[in-house]
Amino acid sequence: MAGRAEGELIAGFDVRRAFGASVVLSGVDIMIRRGEVVALLGGSGSGKSTLLRALAGLDPDATGTITRHGRSAVVFQEHRLLPWKRVAANVGLGLTGDVPRRVAAALAEVGLADRERAWPAELSGGQAQRVAFARALVREPDLLLLDEPFGALDALTRLRMQGLFGRLRAEHGFSALFVTHDVDEALLLSDRILLLDGGVIAEDIAVDLDHPRTPDHSGFGVLRRRLLARLGVPVLEEIAP
Amino acid sequence: MTARRWRRALTPVAVLLAWEAASRGGLIPPAKLPAPSTVLETGWRLARSGDLGEHLGDSLTRAALGLAIGGALGVLLGTVAGLIRLGDDLVDPPVQMARMLPHLALVPLVIVWVGIDESLKVTLVALGAFFPLYLNTYAGIRDVDERLVEAARTCGLSTLARVRHVVLPGSLPSLLLGLRLAIAAAWLSLVVGEQVAAQSGIGFMMMEAREFSQIDVVVLGLFVYGLLGLASDLILRAVERRALAWRVGLKAS
């Protein structure tokens, strides 16, 4: 455990990134500690995904100091499974050791134990994204980096996947940084919300709500209105049923 | 499905029957175009005497040798140019320039270089097979989804492993398309190559028959070329079904 000062898993200092003349990140400071789930919230084009890619080490043109401790794994908005490999081979990609047993366990955890031999093209969108989660989980990450992981799913599948994420998180205790533009999703799943605006972290908000959370939880609405207002969405008076 | 397959066979069979009837009825003079049954008879005769098998064997050997040489070079250079930027800069411009030439226009030059015997035929087939395989290997590698390569990187795959697990399988459909075009180009090259000072092969058999006005043998040669094309297509389809089994689901949806 040496070198993991204060349980720090990933830290970015003065992270900057510009695409041509347009500056997207202008000096972001960010730190994720062991055990916490952090939502990275922001409007479209605010640079959320850019920041996540920089933290994941996928953007060689981003500048700044990024230090990582422990293992990390990435889940993208699209499942990004290799179409020419069966589900099990996709999950076990790049693994060594007792791969079949670990793959089977990871697939069972996402409820797809019986689809080991399927091709990705035979899966529904939600199933494919669950396989992508299994592919990340099987690496036993300390930190999960998720780029709008539920963004491409239909509303019902998204709710189910959010529930699955909560269960997996409770079981494995990994930390997570997930990008989202969905205020409700951020409030349901995270311990802390970082609001990205103007190329920097504009707000750092702790979410002190009990689990399991629901949108009709007391305190949920207060935070929701505050975040939406901060994102520039005027919140109308709730219409009584 | 099978009903549909039979229906698709209707017109070809009808054309053959009409041709046969027109020949027997005296509508088509046998000196211009013999009846299909005559051609089949000739085929049977030449097959029994062993002549047909010998010519066919020589043609197939030339095609296989040329395809192996030209195809291997095409895939190798296409891979180098597709994967490595330096390779792209050095290899691609001359190949792109050379592919503008119809390779059969090189026959006079190739004769001067390698002579008129076997090496001419093999060289022509190799030239014909090289370009489609080079171009499609190159394009296939370039078209691999960058996001999949990135995902493989997050799974800890090294550059070499990414090439093996992502880039090469991803370019396989395009490579197989290149192979299909290369085989077609190989037959075309043989048709031309075997009419230049050959002593054997289907092309030679047809040339010789024309000298003696054996039109039935000429038409038989055409039939053989057609069947060769059909056979190579069937084999390739079988290969694609196995190698690209992962696309089955895509077709269904």
Automatic annotation (TrEMBL), chain A:
Pfam families: ABC_tran
SUPFAM superfamilies per record: P-loop containing nucleoside triphosphate hydrolases
All residue ranges annotated as the ABC transporter domain in the record: 10-223
PROSITE patterns in alphabetical order: ABC_TRANSPORTER_1, ABC_TRANSPORTER_2
Gene3D superfamilies, A to Z: P-loop containing nucleotide triphosphate hydrolases
GO molecular function, one term: ATP binding
Keyword annotations: ATP-binding, Cell membrane, Membrane, Nucleotide-binding, Translocase, Transport
Listed InterPro entries: AAA+_ATPase, ABC_transporter-like_ATP-bd, ABC_transporter-like_CS, ABC_transporter_ATP-bind, P-loop_NTPase
Keyword Secreted in annotation: no
Name of this chain's protein: Sulfonate transport system ATP-binding protein
Classification lineage: Bacteria, Bacillati, Actinomycetota, Actinomycetes, Micromonosporales
From TrEMBL, chain B:
Alphabetical keyword list: Cell membrane, Membrane, Transmembrane, Transmembrane helix, Transport
GO cellular component, one term: plasma membrane
Any single Pfam family the record assigns to this protein: BPD_transp_1
SUPFAM superfamilies hit by this protein: MetI-like
Membrane spanning stretches: 63-86, 98-116, 122-141, 212-236
Localization: Cell membrane
Record's keyword annotation contains Cell membrane: yes
Domain ABC transmembrane type-1: 56-236
InterPro entries the UniProt entry points to: MetI-like, MetI-like_sf
Record GO biological process: alkanesulfonate transmembrane transport
Membrane-topology descriptor: Multi-pass membrane protein
Main localisation: membrane
Family per record: Belongs to the binding-protein-dependent transport system permease family.
Cited PANTHER family: ALIPHATIC SULFONATES TRANSPORT PERMEASE PROTEIN SSUC-RELATED, ALKANE SULFONATE ABC TRANSPORTER-RELATED, MEMBRANE SUBUNIT
Name of the protein in question: Sulfonate transport system permease protein
Organism: Asanoa ishikariensis
Biological classification of the source: Bacteria, Bacillati, Actinomycetota, Actinomycetes, Micromonosporales
